[in-house]
Amino acid sequence: MLCLRKALYGLRQAPRAWNIKLDASLASLGFTKCATGHALYTRRSKGGLVIVGMYVDDLIITGAEQRDIDAFKEKKLVSWFMAEPREDHLAAVKHLLRYVAGTRDYGLVYPRRSRRELELIGFSYSDMAGDVDGRRSTTGVLFFLGACPISWQSMKQKVVALSTCEAEYIAAATACCQGVWLGRLLAELSGEEARAPVLMVDNQSAIALAKNHVHHDRSKHIDTKYHFIRDCVDGG
User: Fold this and answer.
1) Per-domain residue ranges for the chain?
2) pLDDT for 149-181, tens place per residue?
3) pLDDT digit string (tens) for 166-225?
4) Which of 2, 12, 96, 175 has the most crowded CB, counting CB atoms within 10 A?
5) Helices (DSSP H) in the chain: which residue ranges?
């Protein structure tokens, strides 16, 4: 009989144990978890706002003042294998460095903007039955904050669309959900009510379907969850 004394990396409960540890550590440093995005933590002080984003065991840090960011880095971002590194870890580090060296000219530029310019603009797109195996379409969503891309995703749709209109309509509904969440997150981070997001759809039939509340033969089979976009259109 073996008794596990603590969670180890790679076990089923390890992510939960890591999240509990990280959450407690950030709370001790004065950070507050965002209600809209549980992977985001904020700390407001006289020096300004510091935002920490978490993705599994990686952290991304941004803030108004560089000294606040540097002070936070001095507190904790200790690597998992720093205590006992092996040759395969060194090979992985060299691979990352080669990638960074080869992509130094790539990047996204986010200039400082006024709060009046913080407008969310989204684009949705879908192919038609692009998956040759299951004949499902693929949804593409891209959101800009002003002129800067901040969120994008590509995912296979969960249902088989029977027309281009339906495929684009499903993609627009997915983008609509993302836009609502981004708007709430932006309002929480900025402390001000966000402007209504703008969604661009390149299919006239899908746009008409989003504005038309009368079910007809071409749309009555569409799952009700995708009609959420109609409520958002009515709300502006």
Assistant:
1) 1-78, 115-234
2) 999 999 999 888 888 888 999 999 999 999 999
3) 899 999 999 999 999 999 998 888 887 778 899 999 899 888 888 876 666 666 777 777
4) 175
5) 14-28, 66-75, 87-102, 164-190, 204-211, 228-234
**Whole-number Å distance between alpha carbons of 7 and 26:** 20
User: What is the separation, in whole angstroms, between the first and last Cα of the chain?
Assistant: 62
Going by the DSSP 8-state scheme, the letter that residue 225 receives in this structure is G
Q: Which of 54, 56, 76, 61 is nearest to 16 (CA)?
A: 56
Distance of CA 80 to the CA centre of its chain: 25
Tell me how crowded residue 94 is: count the other CB atoms within 10 A of its CB. 10
Residue 78's pLDDT is: 41
What torsion do the CA atoms of 153, 156, 162, 167 make, to the nearest 10 degrees?
A: 0
150 in Cβ contact with 227 (< 8 Å): no
> Helix or strand or coil: residue 125?
strand
Provide DSSP, 39-62.
Answer: TEEEEEETTEEEEEEEETTEEEEE
Domain covering 115-234, topology: Nucleotidyltransferase; domain 5 (3.30.420)
- Please name every residue paired with 142 in a beta bridge, in sequence order, or none if there are none: 123, 152
Distance CA(62)–CA(66), nearest Å, equals 8
Distance CA 33, CA 51 (A): 10
